[in-house]
Amino acid sequence: MKVLVVGGGGREHAIAWSLARRHPSLEILAAPGNPGLAQLGRCIPVKASDSAALLQLAQRERPTLTIVGPEAPLAAGLVDAFLLEKLPIFGPTRAAARIESSKSFAKQLMRDAGIPTARAETHTSLDGALLAIRALGAPVVIKASGLAAGKGVIVCPTIEDADRAAVAMLTTKTFGEAGSEILVEEFMEGEELSLFVLTDGTRAIPMLPAQDHKRLLAGDRGPNTGGMGAYAPVSIGTSAVIDEAMERVIAPTLAALRMRGTPFAGLLYAGLMLTDMGPRVVEFNARFGDPETEAILPLLASDLLEPLLAIGRGESIAGLQLQWLDAHAVTTVVAAGGYPDAPRAGDRITLPPPAPGVTIFHAGTATDADGALVTAGGRVFAVTGTGNTLAAAQHASAHAAAAITFAGRQFRDDIGWRELRRNARTPGD
Questions:
Q1: What's the pTM?
Q2: Start-end ranges of CATH 3.30.1490.20 in the chain?
Q3: 427: buried, middle or exposed (CB in 10 Å: 19+, 13-18, 0-12)?
Q4: pLDDT value, residue 151
């Protein structure tokens, strides 16, 4: 069997690693891949954004399955092109992927289907946005409607902060076309949970809940990023919470997309806020999230390829289940100097020797003219530690992250801090 993984980040490295671990004889291709993926298979210099070249590659190589990692190729219609040629591919069509590529579309779909989420207004003019900010009051959330690499959401504690965010998106064009339409959204109180589900468009299989850390600095301070780390499982993601989310969020979302004639097959990622009123949707993603994927997949005890292949072939996943290790995983992102605003590239990297319970996923690396490993992206590595306890997993992850060296390196050593604080509490506290 042969699998083509589209993308070149930590998520794609983790997917390929998970497949190779279960299927050592599996032939893995990656486009464009990275130096970590090159250790698992063959990297082909085709950009994830080049749909025509990817289609030609698949027609030449005839992979058993193509797996799309990033959101941009999905929004561009890569899956549609493959389906026209009857090539098995895992991921939603362009129309179904609008649930991520257009936050205004997702919000309207949730309103129409009665899916719990925050109140919001969509605006393309600054004057209208400023009025909406004052109507909702602070704190308030300003979101770019389009794809902004996970950075187009600004939580604003004051009206003045919200005004600046709206100006930055609509006037200054901080996020380019992604911010030409914005959402002015109600701030929700609670704790966030990432829920991944594998779905054939009708049935859905939940994966382990995880929690992401978006802020750059320890204690969840500093600017928003694409994610500085994640951990799984999460104790507040109880079976009752997951059952409620599946019933009130996932099932009606899939049904609403089917009713629109755009069924969603692939991985649907619901970012949930656990509020006093139950789970409410913060956002949807149309693919494996990053860096949650790097924390979740090392805990998977069953075969990932089986459900992905069934979905990619347009088959039912009825009867399929996932099994999980009785363990914990913490993923620490090691970022480049200057991230997230202006990440440096080309800094030479020194990696530590392999350590038990630690996997280093390449997220933004390349090799220079001399063959040396160098930084080539904002998030350079996703370092996952596993252990019997969350504390052990966090220690392994942070220790390995600290042993990676390059100029300007940044990482947080407190991933999972909320869960550790919960664990430290005793009855009566």
A1: 0.94
A2: 119-186
A3: exposed
A4: 74
